[in-house]
Amino acid sequence: MDNKKNKRISRALILLIIILLAAAIGFSIGEDNPDARDALNDDVQNQISLELRSKKPQVSDTIEVSGMKEGDTMVVPYIVRVNHTAAMDLFFRIDVEKATDGIDQDLNIKVYDTTSNKVIFDDNFKDLNNQVYKEEKTANASKKNDTRYEVTIYFDGPVGDRYQNSELTATLNWYVSDDAADDLIMSRSGDVKIILYAFIAVVVLIVVIMVVFRDRLKESAFKPLDFEDNDEEDKYIE
């Protein structure tokens, strides 16, 4: 009876591995299907900087400035994705966390929305601190919106080397309201990959279990699956 039980357990494990592998391959194919994602090419997919999705209604990035002097410029590109099913407002806010020697009065930040071809902010950090910009994101068939931003940090005026030893830290925040958060959905580029990795982890775990208990599993269990018992007597063994 123990032999038959081991054989059945082995067969069940093998079937489970096959099912999980098939599901993992299916997820992978769906993720690599351009029609399932949208018209974006692989380069854009890899450039997604920040992503708002289900259970993640706010994203942010920190910019640190030090050693800048007159004539220096820092340019940081972003692609921000919003995964959603209904129209909603996307908010953008700049928070100055640290500014030494009054550098925030002379150091400017320009936020340019290259997707819509418009300038969102262009002023010194001090005046833009805690300022909020709002833009509506309409719903579409792909259930996502990607916006390209170009953030430029520069001195707008003669400052010489006055701030060469000064520092500034600011956080750029993109977020939606609490009410709109309910309309955010899972991300194909992020959450589905997590599911795929979970499938692979389960498959690996099952393989490890089979290796550890290989002495208890009979070789006959690894032969082509035959779920009909030819030994009629075994059916009546209790």
Describe this structure in words.
The protein is an alpha+beta fold and 238 residues long. The protein folds into 2 domains: 80 residues; 135 residues, Jelly Rolls (Sandwich), CATH 2.60.120. It is built from 5 helices and 9 strands. The chain has a 5-stranded mixed β-sheet. Strand 5 and strand 6 form a beta hairpin. It is elongated and about 85 Å long. The C terminus is likely disordered.
Task: Describe the SSE topology.
Blueprint: H1 2-32, H2 34-37, H3 42-47, E1 50-52, E2 58-66, E3 73-83, E4 88-99, E5 107-113, E6 118-124, H4 125-128, E7 132-137, E8 144-155, E9 167-175, H5 191-212
Parallel strand pairs: 1-3
Antiparallel strand pairs: 2-9, 3-8, 4-7, 4-9, 5-6, 5-8
Helix pairs in contact: 1-5
Q: Give me the side-by-side strand order of the main sheet.
A: 1-3-8-5-6
Proportion of β residues? 25-35%
Topology as a string of helices (H) and strands (E): HHHEEEEEEHEEEH
CATH architecture descriptor of the largest domain: Sandwich
**Number of separate strands:** 9
- Whole-number mean pLDDT: 77
- SS content category: alpha+beta
Our Rg estimate from Cα atoms comes to 28 Å
Helical segment count:
5
Task: State the name of the first-level CATH class of the largest domain.
Answer: Mainly Beta
Ends: how far apart?
A: 8 Å
Can you tell me the CATH topology of the largest domain?
A: Jelly Rolls
Low-confidence segments, ≥5 residues, pLDDT <50?
Answer: 28-42, 233-238
For the sheet with most strands, the description reads: 5 strands, mixed
